[in-house]
Design a protein that fits this description.
With 344 residues, this protein is α/β, with parallel strands linked by helices. It folds into two domains: 209 residues, Rossmann fold, CATH 3.40.50; 99 residues, UDP-galactose 4-epimerase, domain 1 (Alpha-Beta Complex), CATH 3.90.25. The strands form four sheets. It has a seven-stranded parallel β-sheet, sandwiched between helices. Strand 2, helix 2 and strand 3 form a beta-alpha-beta unit. The radius of gyration is 19 Å and the shape is globular. The structure holds uridine-diphosphate-N-acetylglucosamine. The site of uridine-diphosphate-N-acetylglucosamine has 21 residues, from helix 7 and strand 8.
């Protein structure tokens, strides 16, 4: 019998790619998603790639009664990957209570229900945003947590603390916290990818939408940072590589290989790329010239951050494998597919 995993936010960008990798690895997946920032058609894309349709429950993790009923309908869930959360940094500054409620109550509900339903493992989606601007680069997991720059970032820190405290108090399950760097790209089949609603806030969707003509011009936020070309540096990781890190994390907990009940890993490539380098790589890979201009800095941006992924590489036996060219090509293929389908 296949091991059953609950993926909250499984219709979202990272959740859908992770569902594909879980099914490819032989897990059975139940998706819970309220579709607040995603679309039910994503389930069709997952089925087209894997040949398996995951169970889909349209439900908000904040709805405790609904979640209980979901666990009753789907008996035997062994692990949870908790993606469901609001993630727009700017919006979180405007609507802090919405962010605290969405991102914290949902985790509390899940953690309350886990022991009742015998769930043994929790993977939590955290972010390198917890490091703020690190003093030492590449940044490893022992770097200090810096004060959050937004309510969104604060919810990630608080959620990490909630998990830490519950495990310390003897919660009857294991947890792995994954701190993501910047996930980009799409599945190689272009059946699933990133689908931002409205004007994209993140770099890559803005790049591909500009390249295809949906947006007129990309603004590069600042070229006066203390970096070689003056633009900000990030660690861009393929969403498929990132998805695979979740599968190995679950395997580790469910097969008794964890070294502690709570473990935290950086999930990045170890390679820092500036915004201008990324634009250059995109143009080279796709052959499309990008219309961009340098504008002022974006408030709250970190100057430079990239991962030291050694701990994840050595302990999880996981390494980001895709080249930046392949990842950017997948992002472009996805954008072309959206055009073909008349979506964008
Ligand atoms: C941001 C958040 C991060 C969050 C992630 C999820 C901050 C500091 N970080 O990551 O916590 O997990 O979003 O959505 O807010 N850029 C441009 N032009 C654009 C868009 C972006 O030049 O139109 C630049 C940014 O200045 C940055 C880089 O591209 O240097 C990446 O930006 P983005 O994709 O928004 O990711 P982060 O800001 O790193």
């Amino acid at each position: 019998m296949k091991t059953k995993i609950l993926v909250t936010g499984g219709a979202g960008y990272i959740g859908s790619h992770t569902t594909v990798e879980l099914q490819n690895a032989g897990y059975e997946v139940v998706i819970v998603d309220n579709l607040s920032n995603s679309n039910a058609e994503v389930i069709d894309g997952i089925e087209r790639i894997t040949g398996i349709r995951p169970v889909f429950e349209k439900l908000d993790c904040n709805d405790m009664e609904g979640m209980k009923a979901m666990f009753e309908r789907n008996k035997g869930i062994k692990g949870i990957i908790h993606f469901a959360a609001s993630k727009a940094v700017g919006e979180s500054v405007q609507k802090p209570l919405l962010y605290y409620r969405n991102n914290i109550v949902s985790l509390l509900n899940i953690m309350d229900l886990m022991p009742q339903y015998g769930v043994e493992a929790l993977v939590f989606s955290s972010s390198c945003t917890v490091y703020g601007q690190p003093d030492i680069l590449p940044v490893d997991e022992n770097a200090p947590i810096k004060p959050a720059l937004s309510p969104y970032g604060n919810t990630k820190q608080i959620n990490e603390e909630i998990i830490r405290d519950a495990i310390y108090a003897g919660a009857p399950y294991k947890s792995i916290v994954l701190r993501y760097f910047n996930p980009i790209g799409a599945h190689a089949t272009a059946e699933i990818g990133e689908l931002p609603i409205g004007v994209p806030q993140n770099l890559i969707p803005f790049v591909t939408q500009t390249a295809i003509g949906v947006r007129e011009q990309l603004s590069v936020f600042g070229d006066d940072y203390d970096t070689p070309d003056g633009s900000c540096i990030r660690d861009y990781i393929s969403v498929v590589d990132l998805a695979k890190a979740h599968v190995v994390s679950l395997d580790r907990m469910l097969t008794g290989k964890s070294k502690a009940n709570l473990e935290t890993f950086n999930v990045g490539t170890g390679r820092g790329l500036s915004v201008l380098e990324l634009i250059n790589a995109f143009e080279k890979t796709t052959g499309v010239k990008l219309n961009y201009k340098i504008v002022g800095r974006r408030e709250g941006d970190i100057e430079k951050v990239w991962a030291n992924p050694d701990y994840a590489n050595n302990e999880l036996g996981w390494t980001a494998k895709e080249t930046i060219e392949d990842t950017l090509a997948s992002a472009w293929k996805w954008q072309l597919k959206l055009r073909e389908r008349g979506i964008m």
